[in-house]
Design a protein that fits this description.
It is a single chain. The protein has 124 residues and is mainly alpha-helical. It contains four helices and no strands.
Length: 124
């Protein structure tokens, strides 16, 4: 079975929406666990697609990264999850600012990563 391209490309974002809906419905453990599973599934799908669609597949193996590649790939999603969790459980302005900053940092990293991986290789 093959999904239409519109559905296939937006499926991880649907997982994110399902995760958010489950987190906002209540505080029971089954809802929180299901929301975490949907969030993790969306992260895994997006990381796998990014790895498969890279235009700089051989270039990134030469760089030395201070983190293992698996942790590096999931780090923006972890920042975002921690930011969302802090927003949900805290009423302090400082903690909410830190949570917002974590989410902005995660979005910035994902945008930069996307731009670096999809642009064509330059001459230099």
């Amino acid at each position: 079975m093959e999904l239409p391209r519109v559905v296939y490309e937006n499926l991880p974002y649907g997982y994110f929406l399902a995760s958010g809906a489950l987190f906002s419905l209540g505080d029971s453990w089954p809802l929180l666990f299901s929301g975490a599973v949907f969030y993790l599934a969306a992260c895994i799908v997006l990381v796998q697609r990014s790895a498969h669609r890279r235009r700089d597949k051989y270039k990134h193996k030469q760089k030395r990264v201070w983190l293992p590649e698996l942790i590096y790939e999931f780090l923006p999603y972890a920042f975002s999850a921690v930011g969302i969790l802090l927003l949900m459980i805290s009423n302090s302005n400082i903690v909410q600012f830190i949570a917002f900053s974590l989410m902005i940092w995660a979005i910035r990293n994902l945008i930069c990563r996307h731009n670096n991986r999809t642009r064509k290789q330059g001459l230099f």
